[in-house]
Specification:
14% strand, Endonuclease III, domain 1, 14 helices, elongated, alpha+beta, Nucleoside Triphosphate Pyrophosphohydrolase
């Protein structure tokens, strides 16, 4: 076996920086003079979302909320509507809350202190490291899925600990006096995204292959080792496509939790093997005082969340009686105005099955 050259953090970082300067992708958030708000926005959007999707949505977002102040002044429903389709909506809610805290507590200026920045809603160690290094030039490390894979392969480690990963990333970003920390962190992530990929990595194009223990051992596709898949809960939701006098009934979800603050077609979770129509009618009556006349059941709609699979069982319903006057979380929306509301993807799919407007 050919042993890799003795690696040093300084040597690796210089090789990575040179490679990054030549091969980095042209992305709209990579600016010569990074704006902290824009860097922060891009990092939040890129969590759990593909770069090509974010590229388009990032520009659209800035056209609507061009500054931190503009986002802070926006209504919560407007923010969720603008985020529609990006998924993981807690990111949008937390970002909105955080920029309001910056507006009120830091006079609208993103704090350049890592500890202060990490106190803001939704800001964890990764986001803080990315924003601090890219926007403010602070030698703070980042570890995401791409960086984890790169470091695991460098060390031929099947199961690196979070502590070790953050320590090594920290040593590298501080090596050589901490020069260009934002570029170094982006180089690590770029290498994992474009060269050191999960499958069929392009080791011949890697600027640090000579110091990679997994490459020398031929184990690069086995590092890091795959984690054992955990069982994912599955819920069935009976959902009312309730149309009355040209309007559809929508329900706002609670602010906290899955899809918090978004709108949906009202439904009830099926907890036993019962007729969907019967369970839906009973649940709507008990929870909201709605008496409905269940009709045709439409094709089920399935959707996978991070830790949950849901099958929606949509049922076309008529209204017999209602008793929810004054409930702000239930509204009648004209069918042709549904696009005004922030509806998750699965809800729009059910609306489309019913022939209602929706993307």
């Amino acid at each position: 076996m050919n042993l890799p050259a003795e690696p040093t953090s300084a040597a690796r970082r210089e090789a990575l920086l040179a490679w990054y300067d030549e091969h980095r992708r042209d992305l709209p958030w990579r600016e010569p003079s990074p704006d902290p708000y824009r860097v922060w926005l891009s990092e939040v959007m890129l969590q759990q979302t593909r770069v090509e999707t974010v590229r388009k949505r990032y520009r659209e977002w800035l056209a609507r909320f061009p500054s931190l102040e503009a986002l802070a002044e926006a209504d919560g429903d407007e923010v969720l509507k603008a985020w529609e389709g990006l998924g993981y909506y807690a990111r949008a809610r937390n970002l909105h809350r955080a920029v309001r805290e910056v507006r009120d507590g830091y006079r609208g200026t993103v704090p350049d202190d890592p500890e202060a920045f990490r106190t803001l809603p939704g800001v964890g160690r990764y986001t803080a490291g990315a924003v601090m290094s890219i926007a403010f030039g602070r030698p703070e490390p980042v570890v995401d899925g791409n960086v984890r894979r790169v470091l695991a392969r460098w060390n031929d480690d099947p199961a690196p600990s979070d502590r070790d990963l953050w320590e090594e990333a920290g040593e590298m970003v501080r090596a050589g006096g901490g020069r260009r920390p934002g570029a170094l962190n982006q180089a690590l992530m770029e290498l994992g995204a474009t060269v050191c990929t999960p499958r069929s990595p392009s080791c011949d194009a890697c600027p640090v292959a000579a110091t990679c223990a997994a490459f020398a051992a031929g184990t690069q596709e086995e590092r890091p080792a795959k984690k054992r898949a955990r069982s994912v809960p599955h819920h069935e939701i009976a959902t009312a496509l309730l149309l009355h006098e040209g309007s559809v009934l929508l329900r706002r979800r609670p602010e906290e939790g899955l899809l918090g603050g978004m709108w949906e077609l009202p439904g009830v979770r099926l907890r036993e093997s019962v007729d969907v129509r019967v369970a839906l009618a009973r649940g709507l009556a008990e929870e909201w005082g709605l008496e409905v006349l269940p009709g045709d059941e439409l094709e089920p709609v399935s959707h996978a969340f991070t830790h949950l699979r849901v099958t929606y069982r949509p049922v076309c319903c008529g209204l017999a009686a209602e008793n929810f006057q004054g409930d702000p979380d239930l509204v009648w929306c004209p069918v042709d105005e549904m696009d005004r509301f922030a509806l998750p993807v699965a809800q729009r799919r059910m609306a489309a099955l019913a022939g209602w407007s929706g993307r």
